[in-house]
Specification:
The structure holds 2 protein chains of 2 kinds. Chain A is α/β, with parallel strands linked by helices. Chain A has helices at residues 3-28, 38-53, 72-88, 102-118, 137-150, 166-176, 187-196, 209-212, 217-245; strands at 56-62, 96-99, 130-132, 153-161, 179-184, 199-200. The relative contact order of chain A is 0.15. Chain B is mainly α. The chains are: A alpha/beta, B mainly alpha.
Chain lengths: 249, 206
């Protein structure tokens, strides 16, 4: 076993321990104050407005498979489904979730059902509210377009693993005059979203979404741990640069 | 039932993770078996997903909603392709024709639509975002497009094409991309850990 593997394991182990400690202490203490992300504030306003207007919330989770490294943004999206699904379940038009990975859509159905029950609106849930719209990236995007266009969706949350095809979804939302908040882990998709979505999250902001929409102490704790790890990384990189310049590395 | 599902999820997650870091034969074998089971479940999920797709569009047709005709085309195409695949097998020439003659051209057409969509989005970018970030984004995109195309009779634009452009793509863009990827990696780690400690339970009740 080499040193890199041991360091990697220790980072994972310590992060898990810290996540548990921060989550438990975060339930009792005042939540920390994070920097303001205007897109998040606008999302909350748009969701509230959609409930008042009787229009629909559409969350689309991309086509990243959960059995690969591209599954993490989908899990973040499920957290958003849980939180925003509960907030909008009692509206005139219940929320709809679409996706391009079958396992992700099955979990989205379960999550949406839980969200409706948490809002004491379990009877509102229909299995058709969670939809597999296609199994290839473009067929998924083409299948999700009618939800935005024909089903009175005034808020579109586009959150998951996407490629350039995501532009079709955000452009459709824009043409409908609907609000869209979009985020992806894919660099190309991030550039495309910056140009096409009303609000786009860049980089790791995607993984902070749960903390900003009040998804729970564990989400807040994970942002704190990301900040600590990022500081350590910056320190490590700068130290490496200095040591290299001094000829010691 | 809920406690049991959480216990199973955490145990399986820990075994797979530890098996990844410590390739002891027992742990590695168990890890491979568990991952294979996950793959099998994902394949079953695809089958269920196709039924979900079918039921959504059947419901659309039954209620005569907007776009029901397209739903009808989808249901018929799906059933015909499914039956043809069952009877002829996926390697049959007709199945190849279905892919090469229908799916491939349709996706290529969507790609073409996408090119126009992106051009239009670029043109209206400053209408939505009138900050310096948007100006820098659009300016960089235009600069890279212009310097990537050689001028007629002149070739590459001097200085801009052979000095500034490589600096932008290989230094500035690469540095930014690596920073974003590091942030994404940290986010992926904490997202996975939330599931591993049972704090996020996408399989139910939390």
């Amino acid at each position: 076993m080499n040193v890199v593997t041991i360091i990697g394991f220790l980072v994972v182990l310590l992060s898990a321990g810290a996540l548990l400690v921060f989550s438990l202490s975060g339930r009792r203490a005042q939540p920390p104050v994070f920097r303001e992300i205007p897109a998040m504030s606008r999302l909350k306003e748009a969701v509230g407005q959609s409930v008042e207007d009787g229009t629909r919330l559409h969350i689309t989770l991309g086509s990243g498979s959960l059995t690969t490294l591209r599954g993490a943004p989908g899990l973040v999206g499920l957290g958003v489904v849980r939180r925003l699904g509960a907030l909008t379940a009692l509206g005139d038009r219940p929320p709809v979730v679409s996706g391009g990975d079958a396992a992700l859509v099955l979990l989205a159905q379960q999550t949406l059902h839980d969200a409706c029950r948490a809002a004491a609106a379990g009877e509102v849930y229909r299995p058709e509210a969670g939809r597999l719209t296609g199994l290839t990236p473009f067929s998924y995007a083409a299948g999700a377009l009618p939800v935005t266009r024909d089903e009175d969706a005034s808020v579109n949350v586009v959150m998951g693993n996407f490629g350039v095809e995501v532009a079709l979804l955000t452009d459709a939302a824009e043409r409908q005059g609907a609000f869209s908040l979009a985020a992806s882990d894919n660099l190309t998709a991030q550039a495309v979203l910056y140009a096409t979505a009303r609000e786009a999250l860049v980089g790791e902001e995607l993984f902070a979404t749960g903390a900003y929409i009040g998804a729970g102490a564990a989400h807040t704790a994970s942002v704190q741990i990301q900040d600590i790890l990022r500081s350590l990384l910056i320190f490590g990189i700068l130290s490496g640069v200095l040591l290299t310049l001094m000829g010691l590395l | 039932m809920n406690v049991l599902s959480v216990a199973v999820a955490i145990t399986v997650g820990v075994v797979v993770l530890v098996g990844y870091f410590f390739p002891v034969p027992v742990l590695s074998g168990l890890r491979v078996t568990l991952v294979q089971w996950a793959m099998l479940l994902a394949a079953v999920a695809v089958f269920l997903g196709v039924f979900n797709l079918l039921s959504v569009h059947m419901e659309k047709i039954r209620r005569r909603q907007k776009g029901a005709i397209y739903g009808g085309v989808l249901v018929v195409s799906l059933l015909v392709t499914f039956l043809a695949g069952l009877v002829l097998g996926p390697e049959h020439a007709l199945m190849r024709v279905l892919f090469d003659g229908v799916i491939f051209p349709v996706e290529a057409s969507l790609m073409a639509v996408l090119a126009v969509t992106l051009l239009y989005a670029g043109a209206r970018l400053l209408r939505h975002r009138s900050d310096w970030m948007a100006v820098a984004f659009l300016g960089t995109a235009l600069f890279l497009l212009v310097t990537a195309a050689p001028l007629p009779g002149m070739g590459e634009i001097p200085i801009l094409g052979d000095l500034v452009r490589p600096f932008v793509t290989q230094v500035l863009a690469t540095a930014g991309a690596r920073g974003i990827l590091l942030g994404v990696a940290l986010g992926t780690l904490t997202t996975g850990l939330r599931v591993l400690i049972g704090s996020d339970r996408p399989y139910g009740e939390k």
